[in-house]
Amino acid sequence: MIQLQVDFTLLNKFFGIPLNKIPQYANKNIEEIMEIEAQQGNTKAENYEKILSDPDKIYEIFKLSNVENKFIILQNMSEDDLDDLLPLLKQEDLMKGLNFFTEEKLVSMCEQLPIEALADMILQKFALMDVLSLMGEDAMDKFINQPDVDRKYSMEYFSSLHGDDFKNLMAKYLGPEFQEKSQKETLQYLEDLNDSKYQQFILSLDRNDKANMINGIASQDEDLIYLFDNKDMVAPMNLLMKQDKVKLMGNLDKEFMVPMIQELPLDLTQIVLTQIDPREFADVIARDFQDILSSVVLFSTKMG
């Protein structure tokens, strides 16, 4: 039994049912009422299905601007039906749904995102150095050893350093004699190292120097950030309050947010969907859910 607040004056307007007759139909559904009316010669009632396929009339008769009415209808839809409706929600409505999750679950869901979507989201709030500051040295080494991280990137980074910054770095790892060499001579020395020796050199950098180098490498080719592991890229989210986590996730495309909301229990998904635009909801009902409308029971004789 589906009980909604129905505008009974519109039953008179669209179906020709006298207002003084409506009380006798309390606790009967729309389909039963129209069958009785049709048997009594009400020609408008005979075509009730046509009227109930008009989204504008559905919106009016069943008061879809009423959140409670929307919720009751949603309660009579299957889980698959609800999932199909979620893409109709606006970005801010989906964000409200994220508030039902724990902070740990929010981070966990983000960790499961494609690395491209995750990295793009994280770097809207944090600098790459923020990510690197939380990253273990093993993760940095894994990045450096990726085949796509060509030595040209690190050489370009070293070339970008100037004065004492360059000399002090080289002397620290290659020996004090490099403090006296020109930058050109030292860069040539690095260039002449075979791949194995060169890789040993850059892996020997301490954590801070390694992070600076990786930051310089990534600045040359933005796609290189997608080589990081998800667990390392998502780490800065743990520094945020829940409301800021949700706000950050609002930068995701809907194609990633919708599957997250689908993980909510059915009753919470229904609550989230009460935010759906009532006009769009009427369109969907008119197209796909005539059976629900036919089952609506007039449980009140209150007019209007």
**What order do the SSEs take from the amino end to the carboxyl end, as H and E?**
EHHHHHHHHHHHHHHHHHHHHHHHE
Query: Mean pLDDT score, rounded?
Result: 90
The value of Rg in angstroms is: 32 Å
Helix content bin: 55-70%
**Total domains, how many?**
2
Largest sheet: 2 strands, parallel
Compute the separation of the termini in Å: 21 Å
In DSSP terms (H or I, runs of 4 or more residues), the helix count works out at 23
- The stretches of 5 or more residues where confidence is low (pLDDT under 50) are 299-304
Query: Order of strands across the widest beta sheet?
Result: 1-2
The count of β-strands is: 2
What structural category do the secondary elements indicate? mainly alpha
Strand content: under 5%
Oligomer classification: single chain
Shape: rod-shaped
